[in-house]
Amino acid sequence: MEALELARWQFGVTTIYHFLFVPLTIGLSFIVAVLQTLWYRTGRHEYLQATQFLGKLFLINFAMGVVTGIVQEFQFGMNWSEYSTFVGDVFGAPLAMEALLAFFLESTFIGLWIFGWHRLPRAAHLACIWLVAVGTNLSAYFILAANAWMRHPVGFTVDEETGRAQLTDIWAVLSNDQAWSTYLHTVSAAFVTAGLFVVAVSAYKLWRNTRYNDTGVPGVVPPPRDRALFRGTLKVGLVFTLVAGALVVFSGDHQAKLAAQYEPMKLAAAEALWETEEGAAFSALAVGDTEERYNPIDITIPNVLSFLATGEFDGEVHGMNNLEAAYDEYYGPGDYTPNVFVVYWSFRLMMGLGMFGIAVAALGLYLTRGRDRMPTGPWFYHGAMLALPAALAANIFGWVLTEMGRQPWTVHGELLTAASVSPGVSLGSVAASLAGFTALYGVLFAVEVGLLVKYVKAGPSHLVPDLEDDGDEAKIPHFSY
Amino acid sequence: MELAVIWFIAIAVLWTGYFVLEGFDFGVGMLMPFVGRRDSVDRRVAINAIGPVWDANEVWLITALGATFAAFPAWYASLLSGFYAPMFLILVALILRGVAFEYRGKRDDSGWRLWWDRAIFAGSALPAFLWGLVFANVLRGVAMDADHVVTASLADLFNPYALLGGLTTLSLFTLHGAIFLTLKTDGPVRVRARRAALWAACAAVPSAALFLVWTQYAHGGGTRTLPLFALAAAALAGGVAAAWKRREGWSFAGTAATVLLLFAALFAALFPNVLPSTTDPAFGLTVANASSADYTLTLMTWVAVVFLPLILLYQGWSYWVFRRRVTGQTVTGETVTGQTVTGQTLTREDDGGRRPEPAA
Hints:
With 481 residues, chain A is mostly helical.
């Protein structure tokens, strides 16, 4: 066991954990902003209830996203000092811009939004949540541009004297096609996740409503108003999910084409394609032998991979054996093949779980079509609740594919992961911090989920009482710590 | 002036801004046990006094680190990997503290509040101490080899000078936070905060005085830094005197100026080094050998020139929006709903604050 291995685990654990909360923050800020806008425009009480109810859940999630994000800003330097020294000139710029342009906006206006319910005019207060939404989306662009640069480095030279990367063109870094394509894919996936969060919460409330009506247990039936409210939020969530889902599919297709162009090894590993082929088949199920580098079992769909990667059914797709030979020659002898098992399966799980969520949204919209139609059996509600963890997991597998597929590089073709780690940090230090973060994150996860469940169960009328006169400003509850 | 020097100043400004702002909310966190009993509304008053602003204050840290990463990659790399254990503890503290503010009021349960209050206290005290320890060590220098890899052990970081630095920031931030509470709250919290401020001054004045003298004597830049150290001492004296005379605004200006001048003095004394090596002075990191190339520095200058004023403007506005003193009434929403307690308009977590304050 080496410090390098544990440093990689630590990056994986802390980043994956961070990314459980980030998509919800990105998507929910937008959904809450839309609901509050509807309330602002119509003055209807349901919209205020939905805004404050989902707003509360959003804040519980937001806090975790913020604090786990701080770790990211530290850990490049802590565990990856060689990487930081090499890339800082290029990679640091988008990170600093993210803080200056996005984090200040987000953090200042979230404070104003939480505490400003009675201090600000309604329009100004509404603007605050919109600025939070803009801030989170902006921050996503900068960090994804930085990540895209690691996969497709552009706009830089390597200084011969210092051996460090030097930025020569920031526009090239920010307009990198990997950057905007990844942004589109990641943020639309975040919207799917947030949409399915709203769907799952609404489905839970509606399912309890129908179930307890059936069994006739008194006292737990939500008032009829809640049913209308949650049918409304369910449809908002479904529409969000489906629209964003279409974008995920479209941008995902583009991502595959970019991978074929810039990271052929990743694409080949994701498809367990060993030999270069024209008219390559899409692998439906492969059992590979990574020692002998071939697949004893491979069930395939002919020509589909070529189409996905190149847009032509008989296009050429590079295989891992050919790429490995080429890289050995170009970069010097080494192992340039990523962990095929992990990359292959994370690709499939990302697609499968993501598609499940989008299918739930499509089905849900069909089942709730019209003015008052609702599914009767429990299966739809159960499926809708399962779609949320599925979407969260799909996001995670997407990142596992992206990051593990880039190995053995941190910066593709420029810097190896093994050469990126901090030389002065001992195995014991990394082990201790990894254990510390893992334990802390485990406890906080349980706490966070517990709180979300509590607030979902309590429902909106717990936060916003059913008022008769909606125009009464003074009766709008305010948030405080 | 060289771009690298401008960026050294910019980073000094960001760190200093961070400590002036987060300094008082660390102080408020550390004073939690002293402003009121666990389930009292008083503790909520204290938390709500920093509630709208602490998150944005913390972004100064993120920005300082991001700017260091971009402008001085080697400094960023050696600082964070070289101070691994303190940085890890600071992270754990900031995580716990941030979550605690948000989650503390979300269950009406005494045990729940007990744990989050501990998290707020420890999560504020630990970084308040460790940042002082880290910066004193940065100024003093650490064992570092020719490749800028810090070889100092954890025990080396706990030298007497650095411990004094930690004690100084710990006590100074406590004082700063107590004075912030006298300025921003009313009722029992304001009274107790003043008492706490005077006690904190008893620790902050001697440790800061000793630290300032030691720093100027051992690591200072002679007459270049002497005025800054003298002004920092004067600001501290003025702040404490104003607190004694119940001039809350002036005393807050005094402690804010103390923190500002202290860190300005530390960075001035550090220049032109950014992380000296005690192994061999030639191995040290300096503004010249740690900085990025001119293209990145020029770009960052433009971004900072355009956005930093904007940030100051809207962050300042948020302080203006929440300029009113926080009291038990504003926190529980009684004056807001303008009606007597019916229970119906209240959220469950509000009940915790609604209980009568136990006799103090």
